Amino acid sequence: VFPQVFLVEKAGRRSLFLAGLMGMLISAVAMTVGLVLLSQFAWMSYVSMVAIFLFVIFFEVGPGPIPWFIVAELFSQGPRPAAIAVAGFCNWACNFIVGMCFQYIADLCGPYVFVIFAALLLVFFLFAYFKVPETKGKSFEEIAAVFRRKKLPAKSITELEDLRGSEA
User: Fold this and answer.
1) Are both 64 and 146 inside the same structural domain?
2) Residue whose C-alpha is closest to residue 132's, from 24, 14, 12, 8
3) How far is CA 18 from the centre of its chain?
4) Which residues contact 120 (CB under 8 A, 6 or more apart)?
5) For residue 71, what are the domain limits?
């Protein structure tokens, strides 16, 4: 994770996150192919091993550390501790669920177990591509403005402006 600190400032959070997700997706597909063809080609064990190492590397480049940067930058000082607590809970809860269920799912799905991960990674990639803004070098106000532009109609008024208009 140490090189990630320098890499994230150069490349940007969103691009590293997307690259990590896509790399993990490709690695999951390669693991599936390696496991499916293992009985036919002995050298597929090497494909599976390389895919596992690449999966871990891509995780450490993107989805491992980047969400912590983004959560810290998406929230202002007041709600930030609560947001980080919720993010941490979700992270550890998902880790627990995967850890407890993986063996059962692997027994059920056999060599296709990583197809589930690939499908989830595709969903996460699409969500991040369309919904997660780049936060590198932006203030909280600039990031909040990006979300406001996406949600509010073209002509919007603030609550204070609305109150002033009703007094007149």
Assistant:
1) no
2) 14
3) 7
4) none
5) 1-133
